[in-house]
Amino acid sequence: MVSIGLILFMVMMVAPVAAADSQAPAIDWLKCIGGSELDQALCIEQTTDSGYIFCGVSESTDGDAIGNHGGKDAWVVKTDAEGSPVWHTCLGGTGSENARDIHQTADGGYIVAGDVGSIDGEYTVNHGGTDAWVAKLNADGGAVMWQKCIGGTYDERINRICQSQMRIYLRRIYKLC
């Protein structure tokens, strides 16, 4: 049985509402992005062009999530202001990868972080189990400019990352024993 997992993506405009008024916020638009398998968004951010960038994990090989390398791939999708996909990229190998956090960088590209379990595909180094992973993507289609796997013999992952004054800071690096 094939499970259908689509990303439900919506933006709501919330106007100040009096306490006595119990109306729900208006939905400006609603989009489903993904394929026929499990696709999850784990982080979303509005970009400087009023579009959105989100990252997560994809198991699909169809729809808006083509390019899977096998298993779960780290998945990054850039949309326009109305939520329509502009580009996407699946990063991974035959193991399991997760993109857990993403931010637009000062140069217009993107910094993405998470964890990788593969030693093939885009990844040539794995220190054992899953490794913490960070990658810099370009602004024009998500091509990997550089990436780094960090870890030891246990499972590591990065849950949050940020950029400040051209330096990248990793936050919440977990070692799972």
List the helices and strands and how they pair.
Elements (H helix, E strand, L loop, with lengths): L5 E8 L12 E9 L4 E8 L5 E7 L14 E7 L5 E7 L5 E8 L5 E7 L14 E7 L6 E7 L4 E10 L2 E10 L1
Antiparallel strand pairs: 1-2, 3-4, 4-5, 5-6, 7-8, 8-9, 9-10, 11-12
Structural features, described:
With 177 residues, the chain is an all-beta fold. It has a single domain (41-176), classed as Beta Barrel (Lipocalin), CATH 2.40.128. It is 0% helix and 54% strand. It contains no helices and 12 strands. The strands form 4 sheets. The chain has a 4-stranded antiparallel beta sheet with strand order 3-4-5-6, with no helix packed on it. The two termini are 34 Å apart. Mean pLDDT is 82; it is low at 1-19.
Total count of strands: 12
Question: Overall pLDDT, averaged?
Answer: 82
Give me the side-by-side strand order of the main sheet.
3-4-5-6
Query: Total domains, how many?
Result: 1
CATH fold-level topology: Lipocalin
The shape is: globular
Structural class: mainly beta
N-to-C CA distance: 34 Å
Q: Tell me about the largest β-sheet.
A: 4 strands, antiparallel
As a whole number of angstroms, the C-alpha radius of gyration is 17 Å
